[in-house]
Amino acid sequence: MKFGLRTKLTLLYAALFAVVLGLLGAFFYHAMAARLDTGVTDELDQRAAGLRGYINFVDGKPTLVYDRDDPEETHFIRLATRYYQIYDAADGHLVERSREMDLLDVDLSPDEVAERIAEPGIDEFDTESDRLRFHNSVLRAPDRHVYLLRVGASLGPLQATLRELKKTLELMIPAAVFVAALGGWFMARLALRPVGELRRAAHRISISNLDRRLPQSGTGDELDLLAATFNNVFERLQKSVEQMREFSVSISHELRTPLTALQGEAEITLMRASTVEDYRRVLTSQLEELGKLSRLVNQLLTLARAESGQLKLEAREMDLSEMVRSLAEQMEPIASYSGIRLAVTGAEPGTWIAADPQWLERVVLNLLDNAIKFTREGGSVEVAVTRANGEARLQVRDTGAGIPQLALPHIFERFYRADGSRSKEVAGVGLGLSLVRSIVQAHRGRVEVQSELNVGSTFTVVLPLARAGAEAVAEPSGHLAG
Ligand code: ADP
User: Fold this and answer.
1) Where are the alpha helices (DSSP H) in 131-275?
2) Whose CA is nearest to atom 11 of ligand 1?
3) What's the CA-to-centroid distance between 430 and ligand 1, angstroms?
4) How far is ligand 1, taken at its centre, from the CA of residue 290, in Å?
5) Ligand 1, atom 19: nearest CA belongs to which residue?
């Protein structure tokens, strides 16, 4: 059976209350019983002591002597002698007893008398309707004759009081527990009401209205903090969902344009082309377009993997300088084709980093590619690798178009391309830098950019050194791909 939090709290509260009250009640009952009990014994002691003062020995026989006109004395004697007996210690026979004792007929045998003479004290016995407690003491007559004096009292009133007390407790405790449970139930309701409100509010928030927020009371209590935390989560979710939406719009857009072109071209070719040569020409151009599309899809896939942290790095120790030199060499013909001077201005050998060479190659190539793309004929691109503070720094500096200040914070976003009109002339879809950043971050590094419009840009990739500050001492096990 499943209980709600409110029921659980109430039950727990009631149970705790019942236990505490039960223990308290039991303690109170026993303390009371003990007090009443010693009260009876003390009273008996006093009665016996008092009574001894009124016992005289007339002709050697113990006799009660008191002033019958004194109401106080008479009252005391009546009280003290209600249950009373005197036995002769010599043979154990009863000498004297009160009327009440006549009726009860509970006399001691000579052995019992002898026992009590030897060890006077308290004893008790039950009658049909009552329990009696007796105080035994030894009386000595002037002639040295010994008697046993028994003074008793009924425990009935004490037992009745305790019974009453028990009944009251048995009634009061459940009633108190019930009232407490009721109070607990209402308190739990009061405390949990905001939870219900939060639940309902959270229920109303879905992917289509992620701009909604949970109500915050502003009191700063636990529930308020919970609501704030949830709101924070919703805010981040909202941002991610928005990014995803933008992303899918961009992807669809990027795919639609070339697909429409391909489709149109194919339709026209089907209608018009007649020679094998025509088909060959169109197919060749289409293959080129398809190649671009498939590169785009691959880039997207890589980026998606990188961003979800699924980029598989096969890291090993490699020399960044060596890789950069080799890649720059590879790109040099492309740069000079565009009339751009590409030079490695400094690359200290032995800049060892732990990296996946294939992925890092993508980083360097993307940066070089961008630098060449956005630099006019006659400009230059300089590459340098340096070491400082346990870090390797790769710098790609160009004298190209530069990036507007407003665009700078966005260039690493997917599909972002600064200054649309100009960028249209330059190939690319705006994924290169996002990929660069994802790869560098997967290598526990960072990318920085400085740029001035119409002056040039500098991209800096910072990666942790595998052998901080150390010069190269050994060759890495594998060799770098060119
Ligand atoms: P793409 O190169 O495909 O446009 P990127 O993500 O590589 O996409 O770059 C995003 C944008 O950043 C580019 O469109 C361009 O506006 C700007 N950018 C990147 N590198 C440079 C550079 N070296 N000089 C000037 N602008 C650059």
Assistant:
1) 156-204, 222-272
2) 417
3) 7
4) 23
5) 370
Is beta strand 380-388 parallel, antiparallel or unpaired with respect to 391-398? antiparallel
| DSSP bridge partners of 463 | 392
pLDDT of residue 475: 40
Q: Quick one: which atom of ligand 1 is closest to the CA of 419?
A: 16
**3-state DSSP: the chain helix, strand, coil percent, rounded to 5?**
55, 20, 25
Q: Residue 395: which of 403, 410, 385 has the closest Cα?
A: 385
Please identify, by atom number, the ligand 1 atom nearest to the C-alpha of residue 428.
3
Which one of 3.20.20.60, 3.40.1390.10, 1.10.40.30, 1.10.287.130 gives the CATH number of domain 222-307?
1.10.287.130
Q: How far is CA 230 from the centre of its chain?
A: 14
Q: Which atom of ligand 1 is nearest to the CA of 396?
A: 23
Ligand 1 residue neighbourhood (C-beta within 6 Å): 370-371, 374, 398, 400-403, 411, 416-418, 423, 428-434, 457
Which strands sit side by side in the sheet containing 380-388, from one edge to the other?
341-347, 380-388, 391-398, 456-464, 446-452
Question: Could you tell me which residues come within 8 angstroms of residue 84 by beta carbon, excluding any fewer than 6 positions away?
Answer: 51, 96, 97, 98, 101, 149, 150, 151, 152
**Per-10-residue mean pLDDT, the chain, length 482:** 82 93 95 95 94 90 90 92 92 89 85 93 88 94 92 93 95 94 91 87 88 88 90 91 83 85 90 88 90 86 79 88 95 94 91 93 95 94 94 96 91 80 64 91 94 94 78 39 30
**Which residue's alpha carbon is nearest to atom 1 within ligand 1?**
430
Closest approach atom of ligand 1 to CA 426? 4
pLDDT of 469 reads 47
What phi and psi values does residue 391 have, to the nearest 5 degrees?
-130, 150
Closest CA to ligand 1's atom 23: 371
Atom of ligand 1 nearest to the CA of 434: 6
Sheet holding 122-126, edge to edge: 94-97, 83-88, 146-154, 131-140, 122-126
CATH topology of domain 316-481: Heat Shock Protein 90 (3.30.565)
- Ligand 1 pocket: which of 292, 396, 403 to mutate (most atoms within 8 A of CB): 403
Nearest CA to ligand 1 atom 12: 411
**Which residues are registered as beta bridge partners of 144?**
none
pTM above 0.70, yes or no: no
All structural domains of the chain with their residue ranges: 222-307, 316-481
Query: Any idea what DSSP says for residue 462?
Result: E
Per the CB < 8 A criterion, the answer to whether 151 and 48 are in contact is yes
